[in-house]
TrEMBL record:
Gene Ontology MF annotations: hydrolase activity
Lineage, highest ranks first: Bacteria, Bacillati, Actinomycetota, Actinomycetes, Pseudonocardiales
UniProt source species: Amycolatopsis dongchuanensis
Gene3D superfamilies: alpha/beta hydrolase
Nucleus keyword on record: no
Chain ranges of the AB hydrolase-1 domain: 30-140
InterPro entries: AB_hydrolase (IPR050471), AB_hydrolase_1 (IPR000073), AB_hydrolase_fold (IPR029058)
Protein name: Alpha/beta fold hydrolase
């Protein structure tokens, strides 16, 4: 197995809870990727492998309440700023001084929080499908029913999780979907409550102070990730590039074009 093909799973403790991650590749040029809400680190495995093949040590993290990380049932433990601190704790655990930090949807907002609190640890940000002001109403309409079900109809969440557990694993995107459906009602309710009723994203005045270079990826035809949010974010950030996806799933199912854009951006963050 060559260095860029190495895949190592690990974990560490943050504020008394276990957080799980996977490392792809080796080296001093590091990228950290975080996932969307209720998804897991598995969603970024194809991109992580491609970045590793290009010589970047790439780490995917299950944020608290997701995947193989612990899932506490207190809503106050879940917020975008708290998730940002978990990324920094990962860097500390692995003794990494600086990294490119990226993510999708919730993970995109987490990357922004890292850029706010620790720009000196951040070589660049990859922000795919950020969730800002234009998405709040659609987000509430989408996730409030899930919060209601988890709080008051937990047997429905447990039933879906049970059915998902019966699906054979082995396919990348089948596994991503089943990972997402395998929820625990109490922790899912706490996660959604903490995220929906907390700080969704840094406000505009704060976004204008985020100094690390950023690649913002947006797309149209998705109310939860409106094109206007991505476009506005790229205008707000002091040093941002903008890439328009053809659809919300382009990077998942037809990834070549956007992957090249991301690899090029990451490569330039490590140029002398």
């Amino acid at each position: 197995m060559t260095p860029h093909q190495l895949e190592l799973a690990g974990s560490f403790t943050f504020e008394g809870h276990r957080l799980a991650y996977t490392e792809y590749g080796q080296g001093d040029r590091v990228v950290v990727l975080t996932h969307g809400i209720m998804f897991t680190r598995r969603m970024h495995a194809p991109l992580a492998r491609r970045l590793a093949a290009e010589g970047f040590r790439t780490i995917t993290l299950d944020l608290l309440g997701h995947g193989e990380s612990d899932r506490p049932t207190e809503s106050w433990r879940y917020s975008m700023p708290a998730f940002g601190l978990q990324v920094l704790a990962l860097l500390d655990h692995l003794e990494i001084d600086r990294a490119v930090v990226g993510g999708t949807s919730l993970g995109a907002n987490v990357a922004l929080e890292v850029g706010v609190v620790a720009p000196e640890r951040t070589r660049g940000l990859v922000v795919e499908m950020p969730v800002l002001d234009n998405a709040i109403v659609a987000g509430l309409l989408t996730f409030a029913p899930l919060l209601f079900a988890a709080r008051f109809l937990p047997f429905t969440v447990a039933g879906v999780a049970g059915l998902a557990g019966l699906v054979p694993h082995g396919s990348q995107w089948v596994d991503v979907v089943t990972d997402t459906l395998e929820q625990r009602p109490a922790s899912m309710a706490a996660l959604l409550h903490g995220v929906l009723f907390g700080r969704i994203a840094p406000p505009k005045a704060v976004r204008r102070t985020i100094s690390p270079p950023a690649l913002v990826i947006g797309h149209q035809r998705d109310p939860i990730h409106p094109f206007g949010d991505a476009d506005t974010l790229a205008a707000d950030l002091p040093d941002a590039e903008f890439a328009q996806a053809r659809s919300p799933v382009e990077l998942r199912f037809d990834p070549d074009r956007l992957t090249e854009v991301i690899v090029d951006f990451v490569r330039r963050r490590y140029e002398p």
